[in-house]
Design brief:
Blueprint (H helix, E strand, L loop, with lengths): L5 H6 L85 H15 L4 E6 L6 H14 L3 E6 L10 H13 L6 H7 L4 H6 L12 H22 L1 E6 L6 H12 L6 E7 L6 H12 L3 E5 L5 H8 L5 H11 L3 H9 L15 H12 L3 H13 L2 E2 L1 H8 L3 H13 L3 E3 L4 E3 L2 H10 L2 H17 L7
Parallel strand pairs: 1-4, 1-5, 2-3, 3-4
Antiparallel strand pairs: 6-8, 7-8
Length: 458
Amino acid sequence: MDGRTDQQRADRPRPAGHSPGRPAPGRGPDERGPDERASNARGAGVRGSSAPVSSARGSSAGGPNARPANAPYPAPGGVPSERSGTRPGQPPLVGRHDVLQVLEESLDEAAAGMFRFVALAGEPGAGKTRLLGELTAGAVARKLAVSSGRAAEFEQEMPFGAVVDALDDHLEEHLPELGPATVKLLVPVFPALAAVVQGTMPTVTGNTPVARYQLYRAVRRLLEQLAAEDGLVLILDDVHWADEATIELLDYLVRHPPRARVVIAVAFRPAQASARLASLVEASLQGGCGHRVRVRPLTEDEVAQLLGPDVTAGRCRELFEASGGNPFYLEALARSDEPLAEGPQEGDLPPAVRAALHMELSGLSPDALRVAQGAAVAADEFAPALAAVAAEVSDPVALSALDELVARDIVRPGAGRFRFRHPLVRHAAYGSAAAGWRLAAHARIAAYLADIGAPAAV
């Protein structure tokens, strides 16, 4: 379920493999909700509660599903999918048959000489990266070369960042047969070429439409040369963070496909995708070269299969409800030594989940973070006015902050109210605030509700 975060993927050791560029994304437990399943995850939150509600219940002392204190939860042990490249100690890939079929078909079509563009869309933790790992395994089995890269939130000012990440290391060691004019166009994009081509210093290319068109043609020519011998599967992860130049290049390649055995596979979070990225994916479908796959949450049956026969039905249901079927949350909760606390008590998030969610929160502006913390004190589902009171900001500031939180998919809008993407996101936001500040926020909410004559639960 690889629902790993940007930070975790950046820090991961990249596996060696048949790759002309950087090794393909690592695989985690089944994260097959390609498109990281825009989770309609219903968590353990209760509307109207004034403190985060536990996302994992009933595993403390007592009860038929209880486990001994400090006893580690058994690793998931379901039945692997037919063609899962599961590694030792890695949870098996469960479900995802529709996604795997699309990936297999795309590889077969590319091996037969066609260009294919594959888009995996899913929320954080749905398993997109794990599925890209399955694509890599399938490509290697067909003796297709693989090159992978990823976009990063804090590198959006670097043009073509994800493409450079995928190809630059290979170009430093293996310069394809390109004409001098093509190389001259590519030198400003790929730093490795400047060192290889007699120490040529990169120069800034013009930003006119003609100059960009010439550059995109040069990149297409580069991909054709890289694919000439063994074909090429180019994998770009986290393209919701990609710079505009990367998206424009991909749009060009979809409209003017490389004349070679090439698959370009991208993964992104749909709630954070730009309009231009969404348009690009749609254009690939209309052009007949694209596949769009939504990575959805695991079903309750798939959760039970992943956890294995040693986990009781009650515990499976509990973990399913707490995780919302999100593979990353599911695995972290299942392995956690200490369950989350319920009600007003401050529980502890599993370390992997805490690190992932705190990474998301760290990218927020100060106002947005403060409003997220205030909303977390209020409820899973909250009115903007209540979040503003808790955060001690004006209504206009709160509304602007909520726009940012929606854009970052921390919260999602409803009919005049907002709801956290997942109860665990609320839990992380709540825990990120200082304890004294939280107490004061609870008091502000209580006073506000008393002033308007509203009940304590809203």
